[in-house]
Design a protein that fits this description.
Blueprint: E1 2-3, E2 10-11, H1 56-63, E3 94-102, E4 109-112, E5 115-120, E6 132-133, E7 146-153, E8 156-161, E9 168-170, E10 182-184, E11 189-192, E12 195-203
Parallel strand pairs: 5-6
Antiparallel strand pairs: 1-2, 3-4, 3-12, 5-7, 7-8, 8-10, 9-11, 11-12
Length: 205
């Protein structure tokens, strides 16, 4: 076999031009003659015009099976692929906020950030300010300094009590178990001490 240096096609011995691309084939090394003599030179083949390489588009079209053509008549369209789940840590496609609807400064709003949002009161000892600071809305100190944690992650919003003294409540249901996140949706009401907060979600256009 003679391998074409242009396209790599394996040609049978004796050919001068590649069957694959029409390029001139390099002459094979002459075999050693008996008793160490030089092998007789092969007669030079008459020059031939190399065949033109076949048109790739035509070759592919001819090679395509007839079954690949669209059949006539009604056919059932393929099912649409299921939407991919939001990747871990993806930024939410909405903006969320808490609005005080009862107790404290009614109508006061707190913008919520992606990730963790601490709900509580300003801590003068550490100088820490929670994202939802209810210090001015809690004259009776019913809200713990680190009361609850709201998390926005992978398109979901959850809230969990983090060991508060007076508990955290969602939609006036039983008190949340500390460390157990509960998923929230737009319009849910969270009770922190004597302050009632409504979750408002605005989609990002």
């Amino acid at each position: 076999m003679v391998k074409c240096s242009e396209c790599g096609y394996e040609n049978i011995d004796g050919l001068d031009y590649c069957d694959g691309c029409g390029a001139k084939l390099a002459a094979a090394a002459p075999a050693a003659a008996p008793n160490g003599g030089a092998a007789p030179a092969a007669p030079e083949a008459p020059a031939e015009t190399p065949a033109a390489a076949p048109d790739v588009a035509e070759t592919e079209a001819d090679a395509a099976p007839a079954a690949s053509k669209a059949p006539t008549g009604d056919i059932t369209p393929p099912a649409a692929p299921a939407p991919a789940a939001a990747p871990e840590g993806a930024v939410a496609a909405f903006k969320a906020k808490f609005q005080i609807v009862r107790g404290g400064r009614k109508g006061q709003e707190f913008q919520l950030e992606d990730g963790n949002n601490l709900i509580g009161r300003w801590d003068p000892e550490t100088g820490a300010f929670p994202e939802v600071d209810l210090d001015q809305d809690d004259p009776e100190a019913k809200v713990s300094r680190k009361h609850a944690l709201l998390r926005i992650e992978s398109g979901k919003i959850t809230v969990e009590d983090i060991g508060s003294l007076n508990g955290t409540y969602v939609n006036r249901q039983p008190r949340l178990q500390p460390g157990t996140p509960v998923e929230l949706k737009a319009g849910d009401e969270i009770i922190i001490g004597k302050t009632f907060l409504k979750l408002v979600i605005d989609p990002i256009s």
